[in-house]
Amino acid sequence: MKKEIKDLLEKADRYLRSAELLLKDGDFDSCASRCYYAMFYSAEAILLTNDLKASSHE
Fold first, then answer.
1. What are the structural domain ranges in the chain?
2. Which residue of 11, 14, 45, 51 sits 20 to 30 Å from the alpha carbon of 34, by its own alpha carbon?
3. Are 56 and 23 in contact, with CB atoms under 8 Å apart?
4. What is the pLDDT along the chain (58 residues), one digit of tens a residue?
C-alpha cells in the first residue's frame, strides 16, 4: 500500500475516533464535521488506489 494511502486511512480512523468522543460528549455539530472529514479522507484514499486525485471537496 502506498504511504499516502496508508496515511489518509490512518487520518480517517483518527477522525472517526474523535467523532465517537464528540458524540459521547453531546457535541453533535463537531461530531458530524469529523465524520465528514473521515469519509473525505477515505474517498481520497480510494481514488489514489486508481491513481486518481481529488482537486476539491466537490
1. 3-49
2. 51
3. no
4. 799 999 999 999 999 999 999 999 999 999 999 999 999 999 999 999 998 887 777 6
Look up residue 56 and give its three cell numbers.
Answer: 476539491
Cell numbers describing residue 4: 499516502
pTM listed for this prediction: 0.86
No. of helices (H) and no. of strands (E), the chain: 2, 0
**Residues ≥6 apart with Cβ < 8 Å to 26:** none
| Cβ–Cβ < 8 Å for 24, 30 | no
Determine the Cα–Cα distance for residues 44 and 27; give it in Å rounded to an integer.
26
Cell of 42: 477515505
